Amino acid sequence: MISFVVRRIGIAIPTLLILVVFSFSLMHLAPGGPFTSERPLPPQVLANIEAKYGLDKPVPVQMFNYIKDIVTKFDFGPSFRFKDRSVNDIIAQGFPVTLTYGMWAFVFAVSIGVALGAAAAIFHNSWLDYLAVGISIGAQVLPNFVMAPILVLTFTLWLGWLPGGGWNGGQWQNLVLPVIALSTSYMASIARITRSSMLEVLNSNFIRTARAKGLSNFRIITKHALKPSMLPVISYLGPAFVGMITGSVVIDLYFSTGGIGQMFVNSALSRDYSVMMGITILMGALVIIFNMIVDILYAWIDPKIRL
Amino acid sequence: MRFSPLLRSSMLALGVASFALVGTPAFAASVPEGVTLADDQTFTYRDLDEFSSLDPQIIEDVSGSDIARDLFEGLLNQDRDGNLIPGVAESWEASDDKMTYVFKLRDNAKWSNGDAVTANDFVYAWRRAADPAIASPYSWYMDLMSIENVADVLSGDKDPSELGVRAIDDLTFEVKLTTPLSYFPQMVTHATTFPTHQATIEEFGDEWTRPENIVSNGAYVLTEHVPNERSVRERNPMYWNDAETVITKTTALIINDDDAALTRYLAGELDRTEVPTGQYPRLKEEYPDQAVSFPRLCSYYYTFNLSENGPEAFQDVRVRQALSYAIDRSVITENVLQGGQFPAFTFTPGATAGFEVPDVPFGQMTQAERDAKALELLAEAGYGPDNPLAFDMIYNTSEGHKQIATVMSQMWKQKLGVEATLGNMEWKVFLETRGAQDFQLARGAWCGDYNEASTFLDLVTTASGYNDGKYSSAEIDALMEDAKTGGDATANYTKVEQIMAEEMPIIPIYHYTRVMMMDPNVLGSWPVDNVEQNWYSRELYRVAE
């Protein structure tokens, strides 16, 4: 088990490095730079600014210095656009916001999704099944950029119950709509996966044996059916969790939460190289780490995988 | 001349001798008699994007400038109509040759930490703005002000201390110019020229603008800033005219999406937001007392590439005229934009101070006459059904620009048989492409930096760094130079516009309006008549329901 974990970490580090090199080069290939503007700067001023940020050096040297600062000082550099903030500041401010509603969305999606899927499977072909399938299909086909305005229209404009956006230090009223908008499609996927996997397990031989032994339905489901039917769900959760945090761009933009997704898009548009790189690395690291966690969890649940 | 009365008198006075404003009344929120103020005097508005800095010398965006005008106070301010009124300077004088300005500062102006605001604070700030080590993206503004030695300071050839500004004493600030700019006093209302507190900047470096560090001299202080979400400014008790300030707290919320912002406005979360394109007629009907549209100092146009990289066809003035004539601007303003925008036949908006829109011939024709003339001109130039004109036009990615470009290309196709291929580009790519003359016809838009026609017309001079079409006319260059150095500016600007209407280096499309939804209780104090839309929280007030 330990060697398995070490092996996975061993792969994760070079993957991250490749990501850095690749995105750094791509970023510098894109036309325009952080200081391209409608009013071109006087050459002397431009030269000064570029020297200040080290942009006058060749790209490979810039990349080397960049990686060196991260490894030695954990310093992701200053923002090119926001003069009084460093990338570390920007991430420290925006990431907790995204993480907060991302976590809530995850909890919401998993609990409702698993419950819905399990109920549908247990009461297969009943009205409950059809209702659960109906809800999950509905939630699946509504993308969050449609979901968000509908929610705001309903709960903010018509009912006047909740604010239509903003963060306000993370008060629960500001959390509700973003969490719902972000979690619904994940919830739907989790419900569908749980349902089909549970159905498969419930029809397998060992469950039939359990029934033949005369165990209660409750015991069969909680003791024997739930764990094996969770395997496909777990493999989905890793990417889903990362997706909820990294895929929050629409939510950030629509609800003006001040989260990291908004920053990511804006930094790309304004060629704020250091912020763009910082967030790319953060997102990349999250994807890699959560995939790793899922692999490890998987290996723990199903020993066959470790081999 | 359409200068404001105060400025006109000041300019007349400048012509004969020096001028001083003495015994001026207080100019903060002038609440008319009989108005009952609301108990809640807070103001919350929407900003499209996060400002890049709150350091006055570095600010480059409108959202940052709006906040800076509350946090800091420059030498002069603007009132609700855009007229100049005293700020930290109580009065000013110009020498007979208009090359030296002396500002007398009030003795009761204070920083938020209690320090007195002195002429040295201005000297420090102005040197800072031109200092290549600070590398301000707005250092060009100092150049525009024609301060003595500014070019050499910017290029690093002279030390910032050699900039033509000095403190004669604590309350007397002197500026030496290299050109007798008639609009110089107007330029000192801009954020770049606001004073900054040296000790604070030296103590905290780049982080001095954070709420916990900042020291400012305006009517408000920054109390909260959550990047990308909100910034809050509250009353500065040290401000010299705090007693006459009404609004207690102003909050700017960053909302990127126009429609989301409108919904939140309608839900009562905001007092002001922009109207999304095309929605003005509906909102005006539903909320007649809240939807407002007023002129802005901005111009929307397309520029021909007249450099050697440009297509040969555009070198022919008849082709340029034909393309410009065939655009029915009223279709764009009335059917596409629908926000009260003005069809444009000149580059400079009619709302600009001291500018009279000349009756350029093609502006006087009916659209049918223009269409007929366009067809004729194009045929003369040798283009027609057997030899159709074709070119590419580019714009930066946006739904609105796309609609306009589509309408334009359809007009050309239907009326003239011209084939225009549309191309959109992401903003930075677009700027790079246009700046490198790697285009045929490109969209452009320009907003005035100060309220005077040269802020627009300088763009078509040969030396202008923003003249991406590379149009060059010795006559225009001479007229613009003459306007700066004491000639009859208004007459010269009219002449320049007439030449442009003839030579057609750009296709003027429309002049912008600001289209907003605004709480009717605050609207009464909003500076709708200030075309630069320079607003100050201390001039606003909220009327009781």
Give short descriptive properties of this protein:
heterodimer, A: about 300 residues, mainly alpha, about 75% helix, flat, B: about 550 residues, alpha+beta, seven-stranded mixed β-sheet, four-stranded mixed β-sheet, 19 helices, 17 strands
**Gyration radius from CA atoms of chain B, angstroms:** 24 Å
Termini Cα gap of chain A? 10 Å
The radius of gyration computed from the alpha-carbon positions of chain A, rounded to a whole number of angstroms, is 24 Å
Question: Helicity level of chain B, as a percent range?
Answer: 25-40%
Question: What is the beta-strand fraction of chain B?
Answer: 15-25%
Detail the poorly predicted runs of chain A: none
Structure classification of chain A: mainly alpha
| Count of extended strands of chain A | 0
What percentage of residues of chain A falls in helices of 4 or more residues?
Answer: over 70%
N-to-C terminal Cα separation of chain B, in Å? 40 Å
Q: List the secondary-structure elements of chain A in sequence, H or E.
A: HHHHHHHHHHHHH
Mean of residue pLDDT values of chain A: 87
Name the shape of chain A in a single word.
flat
| Shape summary of chain B | globular
Largest sheet of chain A: none
Chains forming the largest contact = A-B, 49 and 51 residues
Ranges of chain B where pLDDT stays below 50 over 5 or more residues in a row are: 1-27
